[in-house]
Amino acid sequence: MVAGRAIPASVSSIRRCPRAGSLAGFLLGIVCWLAMPLQAARVTASFSPASVHLGEDVQFSLTYADVPQSALQAPQIPTVDGLAFRYVGPSSQVQFVNGQVSQSVTLNYVVTAQREGTFTVPAFDAPVSGRTLRTEAATLQVLARGTPLPAEDGQGQWAYLTLDPQKPDVFVGERLPVEVSLYIIDGRDYVPAPLNSQGFVFGAIESGGQRQVAMNGRVYQVVRHLQNAFPTHAGELTLGPAEASVRIPRARRRSNNPFDNMFDPFGADLQSVNLQSDPRTVHVKPLPTEGRPADFSGAVGQYAMTVTASPTNVAVGEPIRLKIQITGEGLLDNVNVPVGKDWEGFTLYPPQSRIEITDKVRNAGLKTVEQDIVPQRTGVDQLPPVRFTYFDPETAAYRTLTQEAIPVLVRPAALAQMLLPLPAGGGGGGSETLVPQELVPLKESLGALATVGPPLVTQPWYQGLLLAPVIAWLGALSWRRRQDRLARDPRLARSLAFGRVRRQLLAELHRLADDGDTTAFFAQAFRVLQEQIGERLDLPAAAITEAVLEERLKPLGAPDSLLHELQELFHACNQVRYAPMAGRQDLAGIATRIEQVLEETRRLKT
Question: What is the fold, at CATH topology level, of the domain defined by 41-143?
């Protein structure tokens, strides 16, 4: 059924001859085209990516939505001074979403920039079977080589950051959850920077998970990170911007062979970009002064308190350990329990505290305060009550937690216990006299004396012990000088580092050869070759391609045989990565060749 009309049975009979079948397909395409609503058809023009270096090709696409390919007509691309367009072919896509069918056809062009600058393809008309669709303008930025490419924004581009406070306004000291989201089409090595804004104290960064969203015709990977902010004063405070670094694909000059571009449409090189979100304004309200208790110390959040004391049966001068535990959500550094007022008869020592975070996302945890309290006299029968006051931002009110008095028993000092009661003799009236306990007599004989050995200074082990600090200092000095030398000479540091891992890389290469894993073997081989040549040329490994072999290695004195061997190995690696062939190859022999080539390359003088 098409648009509610049955297709005549005679149409299926036309398939019996090729010419009739072609005519039937053409008629069906016309029927489908006429059945489509006119308002659904649209065309968009875009560059991908929108920023490139001079000399790099970029893709220009005309995407027709809900338009069959048979109805397309080649549009006339407006002439843009400095840009050369070359048509490479169409591509199509069909989507089924909730029973609805949508299709799109894309006309692909390769664009070469002839100079630096910002170029705009103006809006133009694209004819479609008697109708005319209007595109929007598309802009391309061409920068000089070596200039960092900007991270493209959220209008359907590669990557951008958003900063989202979860509350529009908060009190001073209240926890403000902040969500930082990275929207990225393709990339890796995402490193978010901690938030750092005046007027805030920040917690640790925590992962918020990942998800996928579709926007502007593209699928973005959304990476979320959470961080708590605690404002320190009232007013209109600026939060952010959030910052992060990420590596995204960089367009490279495409081959004249269209099949090469099918395997790597955007280029294998990655570029590091620094992303920055828009700042946000947060309204911070001051804590109310009305009804504020005198013992309020600045804690804001929701808390609970427990108080214990041990031991509770002590003598005068013996310590009692008072343990206060505060649990809840908030900035635990601001939690202080004032102990010391109305504690007559006790000596209080400085408290010791520790914080344990149990939920970094909600900034929930436990603060434990331990304090030694020493009674100074008998007659003290309880520890005074402990009070803790905090401000609850949910109810906008102050709350006080109170631990009732803890009973204790304080005995006389331990010196009094040394006097033992002794009944008085002579049939008296039962009165008792305290006499001191007898002391243990002094030892009159020293006993056998031990034989004194030779002096320690004559013992070899003692001499070695004396030299140990000198040896350790010399070793530390040597290590420090080596570290300073490596810091001054990054190229030497890279050479030594690669020398340590080279044997492991080659061992892994031989293992892959024994396993017969062709794809993984050539991927490992390509990596080893890039690392070795990059170390000799002091270039990033990702920048090593076949094009730089002749240009950079030959001035170092590389013989033609070595250059030829490297080009063959690069070609073999690329052939397996982009156009794998069936059949088992002599991987062990290739591994031996690579090992010999690496040794020759290592001997080249830089």
Answer: Immunoglobulin-like (2.60.40)
Sequence-distant (6+) residues with CB within 8 A of 606 are 491, 536, 537, 538, 556
CA 36, distance to chain mean position in Å, is: 46
Q: In sequence order, what DSSP letters do the residues of 209-221 get, joined into one string?
A: EEEEEEETTEEEE
Nearest CA-CA partner of 347 in 323, 324, 375: 375
Which amino acid makes up residue 294?
A: A
pLDDT for residue 5? 33
Would the pTM of this model clear 0.90, i.e. be above it? Answer: no
Report the sign of the C-alpha dihedral through residues 601, 603, 604, 605, in that order.
positive
Q: Tell me the CATH class for 301-411.
A: mainly beta
Reported as half-sphere exposure (CB side, CA atoms, 13 A), residue 576 has a value of 20
Query: What letter represents residue 184's amino acid?
Result: I
- Would you call 445 helix, strand, or coil by DSSP? coil
Integer Cα distance of 126 and 398 in angstroms: 68
Number of helices (H), then strands (E), in the chain: 9, 33
**pLDDT reported for residue 368:** 92
User: Which residues of the chain are under the pLDDT cut of 70?
Assistant: 1-40, 95-101, 146-157, 215-217, 250-269, 340-342, 414-444, 450-452, 577-585
Q: In Å, how far are 140, 300, 330, 335 from 202, measured between CA atoms? A: 39, 15, 12, 16
CA 378 to chain centre: 60
Nearest Cα to Cα of residue 120 among 100, 98, 136: 136
C-beta separation of 510 from 588 below 8 A = yes
Identical fold at 159-285 and 301-411?
yes
pLDDT at residue number 207: 87
Question: CB of 415 within 8 A of CB of 422?
Answer: no
- Considering just the CA atoms, what is the radius of gyration of the chain in Å? 40
Judge whether 252 and 268 are in contact, CB under 8 Å.
yes
What local confidence, expressed as pLDDT, does residue 497 receive?
79
Architecture label for domain 159-285: Sandwich (2.60)
